[in-house]
Design brief:
Helices cover 29% and strands 23% of the residues. It is of the alpha+beta class. The longest helix has 19 residues, at 124-142. The radius of gyration is 22 Å and the shape is globular.
Length: 303
């Protein structure tokens, strides 16, 4: 995905130099630095490097996102909620670089260590193996149909968490994204991405190296979860079995918010979190079929 270049209107952290003490008679001055929040002349890299603009209520979040949306009209806004803000440049080798948020598709993410933390990197042969597994399970899903684009199957397998894919889940529902951010903890992160306006159910933007999929338009009527979550998928285009900077959705990040519900007041009686049974509805026929195919895949390929 091509990065967003140029200035944005969005909250970002800025370090300023302030006079601490001074003696004017001998021109001796001491200074200190202070981190403040600015909005003008933001850039994607500044937003990614920040801690996330703090918000404590959903109403406040809506107001902040509205400011970002109306001030950056060249883009259609999409959202993603996460409990953690994963950043790059974490290994000692990159200690002199500023860590920045990074959002890669599951097929490009490193494996976990024994302690549960992520490894610093993933080998190319691991990514190639994942693509091979993806092709095998797609053959099982296709059956005798075999007429749909691979992006259709990628979106299906990604949204139902069947296998790692080159696509990333996003939504146009701020409420859904905020619920995911705070689903398993009292704090979380909500990202706003600036993408081109959709023009089809599966929109290809060759000049921006982006594919954008509206799930509700490409899957069958009995797939309940995508409708409830207002799900979209986004990824690098064309899709290739490699990991590059173009796979990183953070290249399109126009805002980052730190959601804080430790007071218990983030949601109110008018704006409630999405219930778990709505996010993950029972008796989803498509999910049940895909889980059976996943079991068949494991047995056939001993995966």
């Amino acid at each position: 995905m091509q990065p967003i270049e140029g200035k944005l209107f969005s909250p970002f952290q800025k370090t300023i130099r302030k006079l601490k003490t001074g003696r004017s008679w001998d021109w001796t001055f001491d200074y200190e630095t202070e981190v403040i929040w600015e909005r003008l002349e933001a850039t994607v890299n500044k937003i990614r490097a920040g801690d996330g603009f703090p918000v404590t209520t959903f109403r406040n979040l809506m107001d902040e996102v509205a400011n970002v949306t109306t001030s950056n009209r060249n883009y259609e806004m999409f959202y993603r909620g996460q409990s953690k803000d994963y950043k790059n440049n974490q290994s000692p080798y990159y200690k002199d670089r500023k860590p920045k948020s990074t959002i890669y598709p599951t097929i490009c993410r490193p494996c976990r260590k024994d302690d549960g933390s992520l490894k610093y990197s993933i080998k190319g042969k691991q990514i190639a193996k994942r693509y091979q597994d993806l092709a095998k399970i797609i053959d099982l899903v296709k059956g005798k149909r075999g007429s749909d684009f691979n992006e259709y199957y990628y979106s299906l397998l990604q949204h139902y968490d069947i296998l790692p894919t080159p696509l990333i889940d996003i939504t146009q529902s701020l409420r859904v994204a905020a619920t995911f951010a705070l689903r398993e903890s009292q704090t979380g992160y909500l990202y706003v991405f600036g993408l081109p306006y959709p023009n089809q159910s599966i929109s290809y933007y060759s000049d921006l190296n982006i594919v954008l999929i509206k799930l509700q338009n490409v899957i069958q009527i009995n797939a309940i979860r995508p409708r409830y979550q207002e799900g979209f998928l986004v990824g690098k285009y064309p899709i290739r079995p490699t990991k590059t900077n173009g796979d990183d959705l953070a290249n399109r990040m126009v805002a980052k918010f730190f959601l804080d519900n430790r007071s218990g007041n983030f949601w109110d009686s008018h704006f409630l979190r999405m219930p778990e049974e709505v996010l993950y509805p029972q008796n989803d026929a498509v999910e049940e079929r895909l889980l059976k195919i996943k079991e068949a895949f494991k047995k056939k390929y001993n995966s």
